[in-house]
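During the no-cost extension, the postdoctoral fellow (Dr. R.K.) reprocessed legacy sequence entries with the updated structure-token encoder. One reprocessed record is reproduced below for audit purposes.
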Amino acid sequence: MTTTTNLLDALPAGGRERLTAIAHDVTLPRDTRIFEEGRRADRFWVIRSGQVTLDQHVPGRRAAVVETLGRDDLLGWSWLFPPYLWHLGAETVGTVEAVEFDATVVRALCEDDPVLGRAVYRYVAETVADRLQRTRVRLLDLYGPQGSGLEP
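Re-encoded structure tokens follow.
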């Protein structure tokens, strides 16, 4: 489980400065489709305010929302692992303020600076593991005989 507030907090000072130098602030209006499942993952975001739903394509039906992200959450991890395609779709719930990063540039920085690379990979891996665990709990709540057994 992640213990730092956000990706930038997880980085060593020099790495944080390098990443911040290539970042730019974005404002995404309500109901903005940020990315689509199966398309090229070429950027990622750290959410400053607002909410984004992650959804999965369901043939013949509306996409199923599988998670809602908010302040300090990392939006997007598919950019870090080949073949660099989104595993889910994403859409804003309301206006979202975020910091956006170019994935190609960040991957190059991680290759050039192993300490930064290790910190980025570790944070992303912890984020994915945390989300997988939360998904498992939700599935147990939905389909388990007595739910997950965890208090709400």
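The longest helix spans residues 114-143. The first strand starts at residue 24 and ends at 28. The remaining legacy entries will be reprocessed before the final report is submitted.
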